[in-house]
Specification:
Layout (H helix, E strand, L loop, with lengths): L14 E6 L9 H10 L7 E7 L2 H7 L6 E7 L9 E4 L19 H13 L8 E7 L18 H23 L16
Parallel strand pairs: 1-2, 1-3, 3-5
Antiparallel strand pairs: 4-5
Length: 192
Amino acid sequence: MEPVVGETAPPTARVLIAGIGNVFLADDAFGPEVVAALRRRPVAAGVHVADFGIRGMDLAHRLLDGYDVAVFVDAAPRGGAPGTLYLIEPAPVDAAAPAPPDAHGMDPVRVLALAHRLSAAGQGGAVPRVVVLGCEPLVRLRGDEPEVAFGLSEPVRAAVPEAVRWLESLTRALQGDPRAPLDAVPLAPVGP
């Protein structure tokens, strides 16, 4: 079937996929590793993939660039088996809550608080809906250890391909409906 002349495709939502984490802290590098894997695959128009690492201030500013949805990809300790993936919708952030910026490592809650404060001050657009694709870490470092720990643990590394498939399914659904409830998003099945 040919499109009608002059007919335009329905608009799709702009989605930011943001890898978050410190590559020197073992499983905290989950977000950057997933983003690196996703970048090796084609992504839909309107989907922007970026590794923010520990640059929380950059991420807070990028959130205000007109995205409809942002997906943070991060290690997320929630008590499950290491390598377990989670889709999380963060609780609303109080823009007035104190969240002093830390240029070298802001957790997602501080990033969102800063983005809301910047938006309220007229320093950018509205903060988009935020969803977190998290992975249960095996190795959790605080960052004050004397040594760095490169590389993901085996269960977290094994979750990277599945996380990429989840992101592909999630972005398809959110581009069609940026307010789609997470439990209604069909995720890619596990497997190669």
